[in-house]
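Protocol step 4 of 6: record predicted structures for both targets in the notebook before any analysis. Target 1:
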Amino acid sequence: MKEFLVQETIVTATGVRLARNNNQTIQIQKRTLDFLHWITDNHPEVSIFKLVGVKDTGANITVEVKFSKWNGRSYLYHPEIVSPVPYNDDKVPIDEETIQKLQNEIIRKHDVEHLPARSKLKSIKDIDLFTATNIYLYERRMCLIRTMKLMGLRPEELHELPLELNNNIRRTKQITAPTRKRGDPSLVRRFKIDFPSARRFNQYLEARQEYIDFLQSKGIYCLQPNNFFIGENGKALKKSSITKEFDRLCEGAGLTSSRVCLSMFRHRFVTREINIRLEARFAKKPHLKNGWTPELRDSVCLEVAELTGHADPDSLYNYFYAEYKAITSISSYSEKLRIRDELESAKEDLVNLEHQSRLRKIDLTSELQLIRTRINEMHSKLFGFE
């Protein structure tokens, strides 16, 4: 089983790649052991010998019972469980160029005028339904990218965003998200956002409600109307559907040659949040730039862990070390990061204007291209030689 999980490949539009990384393989192995252990305890009649058990119990699979040093919970350990992906390979923040490619792919997928003939077949039966669905799916996919940039959520947290706590974002300028993998479903995190981000977030909520209202006018009702994300034609949307949709966007954007996954948004978020807190502390105590202290590291990582939902702040140490080194070795690092974010915010507005102009059939191609060119020129001047 281990060899199959590690070596399995899949064929994509751009070639052959591994089906999963080691962290995904670990989860499959652990859940399999848990399932076999459950069968052993609850259905002993299945086998004369235990399927899973500790040493000297005659079990087919011998495991050890270990306890997490973070939360004290027990778990099953087997030496054939693969090792986690190393830090340098697994914790790379997603870059702005990759995000732009993903957004361009979303625009391409929803540009009705240039869709392939087979994609337009859905419009033959009901052009209004096709148009409404196309508009909503565009907003949902853009919201996915923007929300991951803002908060770096886990996929299940993104899927379970509470609608009732996020229906007045423009006033509160705050997004509330659940915290998973902590064993306490009541844990929530709150993220402060600026007005442009609140406006874009609210844009999705308005598109969502308009789509629901349209479906109801057609006699189509949502299976899960209180969910933040809804599926095509009101169907339920599974967590796995979000991940698969992201994978398809990556394939369409030609990003399969390098591993791109939703967790890279999380790494980006952690990096930015550590940067913000380090700069705030340096402003008050400049001598901290001469060398980090355990107190500095622990206080920064604790604050960021409260936003990310990490049970143990120690797991953020590698992020801290990398960001501290970048800030203290490159004098303009943080200022460039701030300017880069402002340029990317301007690009976000351009993406939205381009979409709205297509919906309203107003040709702003030359005007938008002029602005985009100017932004790219500024970006190249600032970051072209990094």
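Target 2:
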Amino acid sequence: KGIVLQEPDESTTTKTTKPSQQSQDKGKAIMIEEPVKPKKKDLIKLDEEDAKKLQAELMRKKDLQEKKLKRNKKPILL
């Protein structure tokens, strides 16, 4: 058997690194779901419901105002 000499700039070295300590998490954490964006149809339906509620509220206020004016017997100016 013979001896093989290598030049220092040609020699290769391998480093072994120890893996850093990993947490002992076993995947038992509470899973948090990302909020789902509502679909366009659902948004339109919600907007329609809000519009109906607003319309009903405005009609109720108008009726109360008319009743109040009738009590005071003042003409209604629209």
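Step 5 preliminary note on target 2. Residues 9 and 15 are 17 Å apart (CA to CA). The radius of gyration is 39 Å.
Proceed to step 6 after PI sign-off.
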